[in-house]
Amino acid sequence: MVGIGTVDPCKEAKVEPEMRTRINDYVDSCCHLRRPGGYRMNPSRRQFLQATVAGVAGLLPLGVTGAVSARANPSGTTAIRAGDFLKTLGVCSSITGRGETLTGTIDALRYTGIRWIRCGLEDRISVKDMIDLHKQTGAKIAYGLLSGGTDLARLLDEARQLASAGALLAIEGNNEPNNWGITYQGEAGGRNLSWLPVARLQRDLYEGVKSDPVLKDYPVWSISGSGAQTDNVGLQFLTIPGGAGTLMPDGTVYADFANCHNYITHPSWRGLHDNQTWLSASPGSDCPVDGLYKNYGRTWRHRFAGYSEAELLTLPRVTTETGCPVEGDVTEEIQARLFLNLYLSQFKRGWSHTAIYLLRTRSNEPAHHIYAMYTIDYTAKQAAHYLHHLTTILADSGSARTLGRIDYSILNQPATVHDLLLQKSDGTFALVLWGERFAGGSDRITVNLGTSCATINVYDPTVGTSPRQSLTDTREVALTLTNHPVVLEIKG
Question: Rounded CA gap, 98 and 31, in Å?
C-alpha cells in the first residue's frame, strides 16, 4: 500500500535535471538512486549506469524500482512523469520485412502509442526505412544481432546511421542462442554446444560499441536466454566479477543491461492466474516464468550462480520479448487486458523497457498470429484498441517541471491490486490502479486521496478514452477492480 507512513527504501533517490550524453538520455526516464550501504566497487562507468537505473524492485509491496521510483513518505507519494512510463512501451516488429509495410507499421505505432521497436539483422530492414519510421512517429529502434547474427561490422555501421539520425535506442546481442546457434570466428556455439563463441561475440560487440566515437554512449543490451548456457561462460553477469569461476575471465564485460524474455505464460505455469503479469515481472525467485532470476540469478538449465536476489533488485534490465498467445482460456479480450497490465507491472517492478511480441502477424510465421496486436492485413485487434485508449488517456506533450505529491492510500489493499502515480506537464495527476484477478473475481477498494480534490475523472481503457465518471470536491473514490487498469485523473 502506498500512503501515509509507508517506509520508503528509496528515500535517498534523486533525479538529475540534465542529461549530458545519449546514455543519460536513454535512462532519463529513471530516477537516480543510491542503494543504501552503497555499491560494490565496479568500473566507474558501470557504477554510473547502475546508479542511474537501479532501484528497489517490486519484490517489496510498494514495488519501487529504478524505472519508477515513486516515493512514499509522511508527506505523500511523489509522482512519476507520465511520459517516462510511455517511453518504455515497445513491440517486436520487422517494420518492412516479413510482409510488413512501412505505412502499416507507421499507422500501427501512431494508433497504439508504442514508442520503440525491437528488430535486428535478421529482419533485413533498410536503414532508410527505420529512419523514416522514426521521423514519422518519433519511435526509436533497439537494433541487434538477434537470431544467429554475427556480422558485427554491419550491425555497427547501421547502428551508426541510426544514431546519427537520432533513431537509435540501444544495441542488442544475440536472440535466444539456445534456439538459434551461431558460428563465430569459425566455431559453432549455442544450442547444445559450448557457449564460448556466444560469449566471445557478445564481448566483442560490447567492445566494438564502447570504442566507437558515435556509439560509445549508447547502452548495450545482453543476449536473451542466458539461463540456457550449457557451460559456465558467465553470461549470467553484465560484468564477470572476481572469483566467479567462469570459463571467460574475470572482468569480462558483456552488457549494460540484462535482457529477458519473460513471457507471462510458461510450460510449467499454464493457464490464467491471479497476479499473472505482476509475478512474471518479479526480479526474484518467486517469478514463475523465464524471468530475471532464472537467467541472472541461478541459470535454469544448469543452475550456474549469478547475482544474489538482493543484487537482482537493482540490476539494470529490459525485456525484449514478452506476451501471451490467444489460446485456451486466453481470448483476444483477455489478451488485451493482460497486455495493459503487463506494461504497467513491468514498469512498476523495474524494467526500463518492455517489448511485447508481436505487432503484426508475419507472412513467414502465420502461426504466430495468436501473439499479434494486428492481423496480417493490419486490422487492429482488441489489444491494439485498448493500448490506444490507455496511451491516449495518459498522453502528454510536455514534461512536468516539478513533480508533485499526493498523500494517497488504498484502504485494505488486496495483493491483486497495484498502483502507479503519474503526472502530466500541466500538473494533472493520473493515478493508475490495476486489478490482477485473472483467475476470476473482483476487489472492492476505496482510494483515500488525503485531501479533497476539486475534480476526479475516472477512465476505463477497456471502454474508451472519455471519463466514465466525474466526481467533484471529494477525497475518496470507491472502485471495483477485476483484471485491467482504471485511471483516476486528479485536478486541484
Answer: 38
Cα 87 to Cα 49, 90, 297, distances in angstroms: 18, 8, 27
Cα separation values, 312 from 58, 241, 275, 365, 451, Å: 11, 15, 20, 35, 37
Q: Which CATH architecture has domain 84-394?
A: Alpha-Beta Barrel (3.20)
Which helix (DSSP H) or strand (DSSP E) does residue 341 occupy? helix 332-348
Q: What is the pLDDT of residues 191-234, one digit of tens each?
A: 999 999 999 999 999 999 999 999 999 999 999 999 999 999 99
Distance CA 324, CA 370 (A): 8
String of b and e for 73-90 (b: at least 16 CB within 10 Å)? beebbbbbbbbbbbbbbb
Let me know: does 143 contact 162? Beta carbons within 8 Å: yes
> By CB neighbour count within 10 A (0-12 exposed, 13-18 middle, 19+ buried), where does 300 fall?
middle
Nine-digit cell string for 209:
560499441
How many C-beta atoms lie closer than 10 Å to residue 399's C-beta?
A: 14
CA distance 298 to 88: 27
CB 236 within 8 A of CB 296: yes
- 238 and 260 in contact (C-beta within 8 Å)? no
Count CB neighbours of 415 within 10 A.
11
**In whole angstroms, what is the distance from residue 44 CA to residue 209 CA?**
17
CA 63 to chain centre: 14
For residue 163, what are the β-bridge partners? none
The total number of residues shown for the chain amounts to 492
Q: Residue 399's pLDDT is what?
A: 73
Residue 23: its pLDDT value, please? 40
Q: What are phi and psi of 276, to 5 degrees?
A: -55, -50
What type of residue is 148?
G
**What Rg value do the Cα atoms of the chain yield, rounded?**
21
Q: Residue 395 has what pLDDT?
A: 98
- Per-residue pLDDT at 74: 56
> Using CA atoms, how far apart are residues 57 and 219, in angstroms rounded to an integer?
21
Phi, psi dihedrals of residue 303, rounded to the nearest 5°: 60, 35
Q: Give the strand pairing for 258-260 and 409-410.
A: unpaired
Residue 73's pLDDT is 53
Low-confidence ranges of the chain (pLDDT < 70): 1-74, 400
How far is C-alpha 400 from the geometric centre of its chain's CA atoms?
Answer: 22
**pLDDT value of residue 361:** 96
Query: DSSP code of 294?
Result: I
Contact 116, 142 (CB under 8 A): yes
